[in-house]
Every structure is written in structure tokens, then in C-alpha cells.
Specification:
This protein is 59% helix and 10% strand. A 3-stranded antiparallel beta sheet has the order 1-3-2. Pfam families: PadR (PF03551).
Amino acid sequence: MADNTNQKNSMEKGIGGSPKNLMVPFLLLSLRGGFGLHGYKLIQQLTQLGFSSIDQGNVYRLLRQLEKDNLVKSEWDTTSSGPAKRIYSITDVGLEYLDLWAESLGQYQTMLDSFFTMYSNMFMPLVPKGKKEDPDEK
């Protein structure tokens, strides 16, 4: 059981950081469906989720690191025509890690909501409902 505690502490330390690390929860979430996906399909999903410029090499390195950390597992698919493809799926540890990310991102969302509320109140005062701002009044 001590091993799980150490693993959880290690996972919590790894959350956040650089934008590359922000890709981790999206990769894990993409694999959450219960069926495996190959790297190219994962990259397509990341693009659809808003990651505009993705270095494919970084994604594959990240997937290998996630596999080394036991967050994802892979196996070779040789059943389809063409070259064999590595199919990735999420592990139970990966599901726990995804839950930690969701909790952490929820906290960030709360902080960001507070920031934008403060920012809006300071720099974009609300116009009373029903009254439009008249540029001639200034």
C-alpha cells in the first residue's frame, strides 16, 4: 500500500506545469472511452480539442513516458492492412491520475473565474440592464 501512496504523491507533484503537461489530461480523457486508439488518432483528437500546433514527436514521447509511468498501456495491432500500429489504452492508475487532473483543473477554473470577474468589474464596468451605452454621453 505504501507504493500506491508514493505513486499518488508523485502524480500530484506532476500536475500542472508547462503547456506540454496540459496535454496529459486530454490524452488520458481521449483514452477514457474504454477502447484503444493509435497515436495518429490521438493527435487528431487533440487538434479537435484546441491544441493548434502539435509536434507529433512530442506526443509520441509523452505517450511513451505515460506508459513508463503505468498511466497508459499499449499493444501492437497487426490485424489491419498496412504497417502495425501501437494501440494505447488507459490503465487504472491512469484513471486515478485523470481524476487528480480533473480536481486540479476544477480548482484552476474557480481561480480563473474569480480573476475574470474581478478583471471585468475593474476594466469593463457593467452597463445597467435595459440601458445601452450612448457614445455621445462621454
